[in-house]
Design brief:
single chain, GPI-anchor
Amino acid sequence: MRLELDSGEHLRVCPQGYTCCTSEMEDKLNQQSKLDFENLVEKSSHNMRTTFVSRHKKFDGHYIFLEDRLIHHQLVTDPSN
């Protein structure tokens, strides 16, 4: 089996000299790299996103509670509203 080297002038990522890398190989490596990066970001940000969602829900609940108390207080102090 003989390995043929091609001029890498058409490549965007791999070295531009004589190489065994083809455009198809480069595209596959690019797609795999993108997928690996997205998975890494997904895994590493999971806890942060979970914490944010949890605290957002708690804040919304507390805000609604305070809003209800304010409305109740306004009705008690000024029944004409």
